[in-house]
């Protein structure tokens, strides 16, 4: 505040030394901090930017005492700092690309898309930031420097962490490492909010892949509606199929005794021919059942149930012991069937 | 697809696992006397089969590892008046669940509410966790539908 007062009085006084003193204090105080900051920081393009203000402050020291010239020098500061932006973007992109090298392959594509978007973000956001610093006084500039330093801190911290992962992968870790983008707010609330939003967007993409026909739709609301419709339709399908199963079931004789006691002819014709099915089971099962079927052609059909003992090495499932006494069992049926068909009895 | 590294874990077992569980449940159902008697009302049987389908799906999908399956099994067990206890794997999830931060957009809040009503066990979840569960639920549901379709196709008369 007193700094601004000094600057305001400068035009009236026309005394360069007071301004020089103020600016020097500003410069030294700022410069030292920044020089301490600069060596540990290897990450973003802030070095380019940070080196500039001290030099500009020195230039201001030598400038004439008119406020007009100050305005022009500040403005030139703004224009001078523009060329650093490409350098900044390049460094930032390099940094994030280096970060992605430590990641798995699956996430590289995600990271590269973010890096491609980040430079554009930074480009758009640095310009208003720069014009902002131009228009305001040096006090504002100093507070901006502090703000940028906070961002810088966050960047440094995220870069020095061993896990340079994107926020998508951070759910496995106890802490969420979020990289603060340049020009965005850096208080913890907005950071957390941004992390949460990114998580939700990642999962939304996953859901979009699951539900057919959702990639074409733009906008989260419609996509969510589509997802909800899909879930509802699936549940309705389950209900419909269970109704059909319930209607189909009593038709078939379930009684184990009748199955065991009956001979081939009567029972087979009664229930099996009606119950032939062609299952879409995996192919290996079909083939093994073919071999089963051939074996059964030679054996008398009354030995069906000991056949279940043979069933085990084919299916490779331990639950067949339960199924041996059960009504619903996948069995190879009568001899009149086509060998590719699997018969089922319930 | 299975080999790609996905931090959001939504793998689902193969179709035969689902088929196995469903058939086991159906067979258990059939050994009950009330089921196969011809004077049974169809609606009861339908409800029982539907419940059997959901329970078997929950078991096949990973038992107590998933939130939705856990709550499904809880509901089913409550109806049978059985006391089912599940072992809590990660205790520190609970504070996240309590602090359901729903400060999102009103658009996604409305849809999230509807999703919560649909997906079992969705009441106490954050939005991001809810969407994970929904993805897994959708996969399991579609698998179960395929199994049941095969069954019905095989049993229905030509």
UniProtKB/TrEMBL annotation, chain A:
It comes from Brassica rapa subsp. trilocularis. Residues 165-174, 316-326 have a biased composition (Basic and acidic residues). This is BHLH domain-containing protein. The keyword Transcription applies. Residues 99-175, 314-346 are annotated as: Disordered. Residues 184-234 form the BHLH domain. Keywords: Nucleus, Transcription, Transcription regulation. PANTHER family: BHLH DOMAIN-CONTAINING PROTEIN, STEROL REGULATORY ELEMENT-BINDING PROTEIN. The keyword Transcription applies. The gene is A04p003540.1_BraROA. CDD domains: bHLH_AtBPE_like. Signal peptide: none annotated. InterPro entries: bHLH_dom, bHLH_ZIP_TF, HLH_DNA-bd_sf. Its main location: nucleus. It is found in: Nucleus. Residues 99-120, 327-339 have a biased composition (Polar residues). It comes from the Eukaryota.
Automatic annotation (TrEMBL), chain B:
Keywords: Nucleus, Transcription, Transcription regulation. CDD domains: bHLH_AtIBH1_like (cd11444). It comes from Brassica rapa subsp. trilocularis. This is IBH1-like N-terminal domain-containing protein. It is found in: Nucleus. Residues 18-79 form the IBH1-like N-terminal domain. Its main location: nucleus. The keyword Methyltransferase does not apply. Pfam families: IBH1_N.
């Amino acid at each position: 505040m007193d700094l601004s007062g000094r600057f305001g009085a400068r035009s009236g006084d026309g005394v360069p030394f007071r301004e020089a003193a103020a600016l020097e204090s500003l410069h030294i105080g700022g410069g030292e901090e920044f020089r301490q900051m600069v060596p540990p920081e290897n990450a973003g393009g802030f070095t380019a930017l940070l080196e500039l203000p001290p030099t500009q402050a020195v230039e201001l020291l030598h400038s004439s005492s008119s406020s007009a010239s100050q305005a022009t020098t500040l403005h030139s500061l703004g224009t001078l700092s523009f060329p650093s932006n490409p350098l900044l973007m390049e460094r930032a992109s390099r940094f994030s690309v280096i970060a992605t090298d430590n990641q798995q392959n699956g996430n590289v594509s995600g990271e590269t898309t973010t890096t491609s978007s980040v430079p554009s973000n930074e480009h758009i956001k640095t310009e208003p930031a720069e014009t902002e610093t131009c228009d305001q006084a040096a006090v504002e500039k100093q507070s901006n420097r502090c703000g940028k330093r906070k961002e810088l801190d966050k960047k440094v911290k995220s870069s020095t962490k061993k896990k340079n992962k994107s926020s998508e992968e951070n759910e496995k870790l106890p802490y969420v490492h979020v990289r603060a983008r340049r020009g965005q707010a850096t208080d913890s609330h907005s950071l957390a909010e941004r992390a949460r939003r990114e998580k939700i967007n990642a999962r939304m993409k996953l859901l979009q892949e699951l539900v057919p026909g959702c990639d074409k739709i733009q906008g989260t609301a419609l996509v969510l509606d589509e997802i909800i419709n899909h879930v509802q339709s699936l549940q309705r399908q389950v209900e419909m199929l269970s109704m059909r199963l319930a209607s189909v079931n009593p038709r078939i004789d379930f009684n184990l005794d009748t199955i065991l006691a009956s001979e081939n002819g009567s029972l087979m014709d009664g229930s099996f021919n009606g119950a032939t099915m062609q299952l879409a089971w995996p192919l290996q099962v079909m083939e093994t059942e073919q071999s089963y079927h051939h074996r059964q052609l030679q054996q008398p059909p009354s030995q069906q149930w000991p056949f279940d003992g043979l069933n085990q090495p084919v299916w490779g499932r331990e639950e067949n012991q339960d199924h041996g006494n059960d009504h619903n069992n996948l069995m190879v049926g009568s001899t009149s069937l086509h060998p590719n068909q699997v018969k089922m009895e319930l | 697809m299975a080999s790609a590294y996905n931090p959001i874990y939504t793998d689902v077992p193969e179709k035969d696992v689902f088929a196995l569980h469903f058939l086991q449940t159906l067979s258990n159902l059939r050994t009950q006397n009330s089921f196969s008697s011809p004077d049974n009302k169809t609606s009861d049987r339908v409800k029982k089969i539907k419940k059997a389908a959901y329970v078997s799906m929950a078991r096949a999908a990973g038992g107590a590892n998933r939130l939705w399956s856990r709550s499904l099994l809880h509901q089913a067990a409550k109806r049978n008046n059985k006391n089912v206890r599940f072992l809590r794997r990660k205790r520190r999830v609970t504070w996240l669940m309590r602090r359901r931060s729903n400060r999102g957009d009103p658009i996604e809040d409305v849809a999230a509410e509807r999703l919560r009503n649909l997906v079992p066990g969705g009441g106490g979840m954050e939005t991001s966790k809810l969407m994970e569960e929904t993805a897994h639920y959708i996969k399991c549901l579609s698998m179960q539908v395929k199994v049941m379709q095969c069954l019905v196709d095989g049993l229905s008369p030509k």
